[in-house]
Write a structure and sequence with these properties.
This protein has 108 residues and is mainly alpha-helical. The chain is built from 5 helices and 2 strands; from the N terminus they run H-H-H-E-E-H-H.
């Protein structure tokens, strides 16, 4: 006997839910937390003075771009690129935990 299960998945609806601002805001907050040890620190302003939006972290300190990209005399310190190797799994786990929590209501 052959048993076939027909499963209907609303792929477009699922894709819309995965584009949720709440999901990407959570991801941005987690990424900001995870790359903290990689941000150059003197006073801590570079890490603290940020604007976080869905999928975006903007460092607001006036010298942030100069430190990140560097100058003709000093190399840049791209802290997010430095962190990704060590922190990628933790970021994926944090986003997966958010999805698993049911807050996106993927089932319906």
């Amino acid at each position: 006997m052959k048993l076939t299960a027909n499963v209907r998945i609303d792929r477009e609806g699922l894709a819309r839910k995965l584009q949720s601002d709440a999901l990407w805001l959570h991801a941005a907050k987690e990424w900001h937390r995870l790359y903290r040890p990689y941000v150059p620190r003197d006073t801590g302003r570079l890490y603290r003075d940020v604007r976080i939006a869905p999928g975006q972290i903007e460092h607001l300190a006036p010298y942030a771009a100069r430190i990140y990209y560097g100058t003709s005399k000093t190399p840049g310190r791209q802290w997010d690129a430095s962190a990704i190797g060590a922190q990628r799994a933790a970021l994926v786990a944090a986003v997966q935990a958010y999805v698993d929590s049911g807050r996106l209501n993927l089932g319906g």
